[in-house]
Design a protein that fits this description.
By secondary structure, this protein is mainly α. It is 61% helix and 7% strand.
Length: 151
């Protein structure tokens, strides 16, 4: 995507995508230096879409924008690493829930610290604070991915 193709000002979506990839690459490398397993970008995305509460695999797939099979493969890999676990869903017979293990919580906490340190490396702390406030206020960020389709 060059300036010739799109004009002098690149689309905000492209800048956000590039920034997201930079943060993800840097944080994964730092977490690996800290002794955590080498994770893929897809695996770290799982943590971005989990909360403090267990979630059904189909809902996690929807949040990720993945198929259920692709999400199942990601979850199984993270289970093998001891970062996630699958629990029985007490509300649904035969239902399952994806849950972060204590080890996974420690990884997420360490990842949070790493991301904050990366933010500190950026040139202007006030600009970073303003950007954070602006982006947090976007409807797409506040509500998460669209519910238009369930994979």
């Amino acid at each position: 995507m060059t300036a010739r193709r799109f004009g002098a000002r690149p689309p905000l979506a492209r800048l956000l995508l590039l920034a997201s990839r930079w943060f993800d690459e840097q944080s994964r490398a730092e977490l690996e230096r800290r002794g955590w397993p080498k994770l893929s970008a897809a695996q770290t995305a799982v943590f971005a879409h989990l909360s403090d509460f267990p979630v059904p695999p189909a809902e996690l797939a929807r949040r990720l924008g993945n198929t259920r099979q692709a999400t199942s493969d990601l979850v199984q890999g993270l289970i093998r690493l001891g970062l996630l676990e699958m629990l029985d869903d007490p509300a649904r017979r035969g239902g399952r829930l994806v849950c972060v293990t204590q080890r996974g919580v420690r990884l997420a906490q360490d990842g949070y610290v790493v991301l904050l340190k990366l933010e500190e490396q950026l040139a202007d702390a006030e600009v970073v604070k303003q950007l954070h406030t602006l982006l947090a206020g976007l409807p797409a960020v506040a509500t998460g991915p669209s519910k238009s389709q369930d994979p």
